[in-house]
Amino acid sequence: VMTKLGEGGRLVIPAEYRKAMGVETGDELVLVLDGSALRVSTPREGVRRAQALVRSYLPAGLSLSEELIAERRQEARKDGADE
User: Fold this and answer.
1) pLDDT band with cut points at 50, 70 and 90 for residue 65
2) Which of 10, 24, 45, 65 could make an S-S bridge to 6, C-beta 3.0–4.6 Å?
3) Mean pLDDT, to the nearest integer, of 43-49?
């Protein structure tokens, strides 16, 4: 799809693209300049990509949230024993 850059640098995203992205007028979007290409995504998509990237470095079955909770519980037990 071709579009023209409007006055003030405005870019119109065609309705079918907005619908596919699940965005409406006034929603925030994330712009990423990748070389000379512009990528447009939603903040939710940015979080999803970041989670997928982190997940790719973790061993299968490892839950960072469960690890963090276990560490905090261990620290709390130590703090309670010090009193």
Assistant:
1) confident
2) 10
3) 91
The Cα 38–Cα 22 span in angstroms is: 19
CA 41, 32, 40: angle at the middle one, nearest 5? 25
d(CA 83, CA 78): 9
Non-local CB neighbours of 22 within 8 Å, separated by 6+ positions:
42
Kindly tell me if the per-residue pLDDT of 82 is higher than 80.
no
What H or E segment, with its residue span, contains residue 78?
helix 64-82
- The first and second tokens of residue 2, run together, are 């071709």
Name the residue with tokens 């470095």.
Answer: 57
Distance CA(78)–CA(34), nearest Å, equals: 48
The pLDDT-based confidence of 8 (bands split at 50, 70, 90) is: very high
